[in-house]
Amino acid sequence: GGTEGLFANKTLEITDDVLASYKNQGGFDLLGRSIDQIRSSKQVSAAMTTCQNLNLDGLVIVGGVTSNSDAAQLAETLVQKNCKTKVVGVPVSLNGDLKNQFVETTVGFDTVCKVNSQLISNVCLDAISAGKYYYFVRLMGRKASHVALECALQSHPNMLIMGEEVALSKLTLMEVINKICDGVQARAELGKHHGVLLIPEGLIESIPEMYALIQEISILHNNNVPVTEIPTQVSPWAAALFQFLPPFIRRELLLHQESDNSAQLSQIDTEQLLAHLVEAEMIKRTKEGRYKGKKFSSVCHFFGYQARGSLPSNFDCDYAYVLGHISLHMIAAGLTGYMATVANLKDPVHKWRCAAAPLTAMMSVRRHLRGPGAIPIGKPAIHPSPIDLKGKAYELLREKASSFLLDDFYRTPGGIQFEGPGSDAKPITLTIEDQDYMGDIEMLKLYLDKVKTIVKPGCSRDTLKAAISSMISVTHVLTVMSHPLNAELPLYHFN
Amino acid sequence: GGTEGLFANKTLEITDDVLASYKNQGGFDLLGRSIDQIRSSKQVSAAMTTCQNLNLDGLVIVGGVTSNSDAAQLAETLVQKNCKTKVVGVPVSLNGDLKNQFVETTVGFDTVCKVNSQLISNVCLDAISAGKYYYFVRLMGRKASHVALECALQSHPNMLIMGEEVALSKLTLMEVINKICDGVQARAELGKHHGVLLIPEGLIESIPEMYALIQEISILHNNNVPVTEIPTQVSPWAAALFQFLPPFIRRELLLHQESDNSAQLSQIDTEQLLAHLVEAEMIKRTKEGRYKGKKFSSVCHFFGYQARGSLPSNFDCDYAYVLGHISLHMIAAGLTGYMATVANLKDPVHKWRCAAAPLTAMMSVRRHLRGPGAIPIGKPAIHPSPIDLKGKAYELLREKASSFLLDDFYRTPGGIQFEGPGSDAKPITLTIEDQDYMGDIEMLKLYLDKVKTIVKPGCSRDTLKAAISSMISVTHVLTVMSHPLNAELPLYHFN
Predict the structure, then answer these.
(1) For residue A354, what is the enclosing H or E element?
(2) In chain A, which residues have their Cβ closer than 8 Å to the Cβ of B416?
(3) Average pLDDT over residues B59-64
(4) Contact B126 A420 (CB under 8 A)
(5) What are the backbone dihedrals phi and psi of residue B339, each rounded to the nearest 5 degrees, phi first?
(6) I need a surface site. Which of A368, B109, B221, B458 has the fewest CB within 10 A?
């Protein structure tokens, strides 16, 4: 029963027999999922009571940013209350947004991206076969665009509208629409009237005026303003935006009001909103004589639930087994409030480095307003990492963007393979980022070698002195830089 | 450009180089798809002109029931007009409804069923993990339920509502709803509040009163009655049904009016209609005290386009290569109006039997009314085959139905494999039906052996005489039975 089962002390002894039919399978049906939360003091104390009643040595919490934030809080509470149960986190999430100096990727991300890329590539081939539809595909993955970026690199769709890009450039809704329309127009000039666009579900949060409108509606809703009166009570510019939106989106904005803002946002059919507005803009451009291609037609998709519960990829199976083993060792070693981590994932398994990293080292306190009048949130938490717009993966996408847009350079990865070619494939973003890291190390080696080449027997005494002085300074800085982290947050290494 | 490219004489010479990057790939992007039709006299004559201009030896038409009906008509026209081009059909369709004594299955059916089964099994595991949602999954496949049946046998969802079953039992919409609700209730009594239902897109056509309502609306529409007035002008019982339906379905019924009735029907979100009505009925049952389980919640899916264009399964690749070779031999042999066929598909490739079957042998003339006032349709065509409700595949489903419903006996086939276990899997329905056919042959052999056992040296003269007389009669009947078909419609065998 998931966390509810934990609160209610529902137990199941996992023997080899029980486990046999669940090994290497997808889903969470062995232990179940329920509310995925151990947060309120009532929930925390229920979890603690169960730990005490069962005299548990360890509790392993499997999940993403929120579950592991909960794990940290629970670990602290158990220590305070002298409960012996050690709490250990394991990074598992399809969103791929639990990513930091300790965690290279999460279990499930590879599988979900592979299944989605398979479906996107099917849609790409369907699009180019018929040559007359634009497919707008929305992908799960919460606020960050990791799933969408990985899928784009795997399947090469024509466009990817990333939330992080939109947020950085502060693009308005109409600027996003115009960007898409310019792409449609550029393709039409090549005689292409089909295409595939990827839209991360978090995009809607990244468009400033949409987010603000949603916040205004949310506040009125919380003040018990009747739904029918909300449109007349929002600010004038928000009302103008609201009236501009198609009716089905207006309904969704008014109806889907839940306590968790991010959950609510994911229920908005962003792909339909964009398709609708792009169509309207293309009709406008046609009337004004700016667009002379065929009529724009779209088909919308939301690839979410059907990628969850999939048979996991070989990489995810390996990764999960290793994390499971680490968890056991962590509890045996008496660690609490730590996460099982594996480094060097891009390398073959024998080069993987197992470790335990303190959950607190991944946590930070953010003060951000959630819309006008909202109060600052000041609780420490593990926050979702956005796409690094200076990273290699994004750079690769940028390099290929124009070819993706115009050349129909679709790539067909197919279903997840368990044997033969492709069965050991890892997420492209993981591989690239690691190449970048190793590349930097190579570059450092080059510089060190260069120093050796310059400063060798025969060089001037002054050069030698300068070199020694500089290197003392460099090593000092590096020692200081790496020391405080090690002291405060000891990394626990298994060898 | 598909058929439009054919009409416009757009050509492409397919060399090995051109073909190299398309081999074993999905989609129709090498030659394109457009209107998938060579039917009107204008279209037929445009196709003929191209054939003559290019001095074509043969034209290979790849498609399902409608494309091959068109192929037959085109072949006849070309012969009448003394055009030398031979027209050959190849059975390719994801629907699996081109199925008869010559055609065991179509290219694409295996792939589409495997991709859909993969997604359905993902959804099943997601459903059982959370334990609180019913997933209503609508599948493509036109009027017949072949895709849905095959997917059900591959993934073992809790329920499958087959159009053919509903049509045979003449179930009303509310009877279908009650059937689903009874299933939900039976599961709730076992403490299960989740589930997965498969709904073939053709189901809506099979519910008598829904079909009649759609026809009434269609006729009013064709008589240019304004959309707003249609609801008031339908017959009283149709108006009552219309008012009973949820608003989004009413809108869809009124708005989606296209010339091709079947296309229009597929745009109705049947899965949402059923989910909506099941929820209403469960609320009603709760109020009446007949249902005491948790609140019923549903999530809807339409698995259509994302399964097309997939990398084909090994079976589909093999099958398509063989059909291509047959087509070449058929044209070389001067056959026109024939379809390339392969028998014994369930056996290893070396046991496959290649043949050419006359398209006319698959065609029939049906006189059926399409709603009140419609005129009889009397053109020969290849008609989609419904599921054989006396067949082995359906029998297997019936046997397992109660276990599927209650035991969460979900099966996880995973993505299409190209190497290793499962890579040579064939459609279950194909394998079962073939086993049935071979089983009958085995049974016949048993009877023949029994005759030999009874009538052997030592048996009475009378027994011998009776046996000879009976066997003369049997062989005579069989000769007559098999002769007319052979005479009129010679099967052309390649050895």
Answers:
(1) strand A353-358
(2) 414-415
(3) 96
(4) no
(5) -115, 140
(6) B458
Q: What is the pLDDT of residues B384-423, one digit of tens each?
A: 999 999 888 999 999 999 999 999 999 999 999 999 999 9
Mean of the pLDDT values across residues B14-34? Answer: 91
What is the reported pLDDT for A106? 96
Ranking A70-84, A157-171, B289-303, B472-486 by mean pLDDT, the lowest is B472-486
CA dihedral over B430, B433, B437, B443, signed as positive or negative: positive
d(CA A271, CA B382): 39
| Residue A189 tokens, joined | 């000039």
- B33: nearest CA partner in chain A: A130
Residue A198 C-alpha from the chain's centroid? 15
Q: Cβ separation of A135 and B305 shorter than 8 Å? A: yes
Spatial distance between the Cα atoms of A396 and A394, rounded to a whole number of angstroms: 5
B194 pLDDT higher than 60: yes
Chain B closest CA to A56's CA: distance in Å? 24
Q: Which of A275, A262, A355 is nearest to A64 (CA)?
A: A262
CB B160 within 8 A of CB B88: no
| B62 close contact with A: CB closer than 8 A | no
Q: Which is higher by pLDDT, B266 or B37? A: B37
> Measured between beta carbons, which residues in chain A are less than 8 angstroms from residue B308?
122, 125-126
Specify the 3-state DSSP secondary structure of B86.
Answer: strand
Q: Which residues contact A179 (CB under 8 A, 6 or more apart)?
A: A161, A171
Tell me which chain B residue has its CA closest to the CA of residue A137: B306
Work out the minimum CA distance from A63 to partner chain B, whole angstroms.
14
Q: Which of A27, A311, A414 sits opposite B126 (nearest CB)?
A: A27
- Joined together, the tokens standing for residue A191 give 């005689």
Most confident of A361-365, A379-383, B116-120: B116-120
Three-state DSSP class for residue A160: strand
Cβ density class A465-480: b for 16+ within 10 Å, e for less: eeeeeeeeeeeeeeee
Are B68 and B91 contacting, i.e. CB atoms less than 8 angstroms apart? yes
Burial category of A321 from C-beta neighbours within 10 Å (exposed 0-12, middle 13-18, buried 19 and up): middle
pLDDT tens digit sequence for A420-473:
999 999 999 998 876 555 566 777 888 888 888 888 888 888 888 888 888 887
Cα–Cα dist B370/B34, whole Å: 27
Identify the pLDDT of residue A439. 62
Taking the C-alpha atoms of residue B39 and residue B100, their distance in angstroms, rounded to an integer, is 23
Q: Copy the structure tokens of residue B493.
A: 């065998």
Of the candidates B338, B347, B318, B328, which has an alpha carbon nearest to the alpha carbon of residue B102?
A: B338
Q: Give CA–CA dist B179/B175, Å, rounded.
A: 6
User: How far is A413 from chain B, CA to nearest CA, in Å?
Assistant: 8
Helix (H) or strand (E) holding A489: none
| B29 to chain A, closest Cα gap in Å | 4
CB within 8 Å: A415 and B412: no
Q: Does B258 touch chain A (CB under 8 A)?
A: no
A172–B contact, CB cutoff 8 A: no
Alpha-carbon distance of A469 to A480, in angstroms, equals 17
Report B:4-33 residues touching A (Cβ under 8 A): 25-29, 32-33
Of the candidates B28, B115, B420, the beta carbon closest to that of A129 is on B28
Half-sphere exposure of B411 toward its Cβ, with a 13 Å CA cutoff?
14
Q: Would the pLDDT of B435 be above 60?
A: no
| CA atoms of A404 and A205, how far apart (whole Å) | 25
Indicate the residue type of A107.
V
Q: What share of chain A is helix, strand, coil (3-state, %, to 5)?
A: 55, 10, 35
Q: Check pLDDT > 60 for residue A490.
A: no
Determine the distance in angstroms separating the CA of A236 from the nearest CA of chain B, rounded to an integer: 30
